[in-house]
Structure formats: C-alpha cells, structure tokens
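Researcher: Quick test of sequence recovery. Tokens follow.
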C-alpha cells in the first residue's frame, strides 16, 4: 500500500515550508545583550525586548502560514499571555 499523501494548500517555491520561511521571512532576532552589559538598560527592559522580538517573529510566521498558505487542516493553537 503506498504511503498517504498529505494535501497541500499551495505549492511552495522553496519546496518545503522550512525552506520558504528561511528564504522569505526575516531571520529570528534575539535581544541585544550589549545595552544590558553597558548598563544602558536594566534587566527588565532586556527581557521585555527579547519577548517583543520573539512575539514579532512568531506572529509573522503564523500569519504567513494562516493567511498565505491557508491550510485545510485544523491547527492546534496555543495562546501565551
């Protein structure tokens, strides 16, 4: 029996979702440690900067998947607060 073929919403130019995201979305950016090290900002600001950057990247990837690819399968979504 042949393996089951997964349905695709659209064919991606990069071939896989991972390749397309790597080629077309901005790279993940971590919080910059230099201002904290130089004591220009405090630790709370550094942590908040990291959280904001992570959320921005995660939102961009999720919006691309849901809006552009429009998958037909139900995706489990977890909302962090």
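Model:
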């Amino acid at each position: 029996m042949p393996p089951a073929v997964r349905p695709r919403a659209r064919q991606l130019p990069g071939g896989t979702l991972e390749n397309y995201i790597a080629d077309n979305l901005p790279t993940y950016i971590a919080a910059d440690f230099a201002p904290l090290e130089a004591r220009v900002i405090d630790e709370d600001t550094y942590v908040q900067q990291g959280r904001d950057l992570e959320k921005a990247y995660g939102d961009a990837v999720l919006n691309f998947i849901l809006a552009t690819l429009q998958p037909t399968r139900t995706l489990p979504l977890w909302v962090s607060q």
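Residues 4-9 have pLDDT under 50 and may be disordered.
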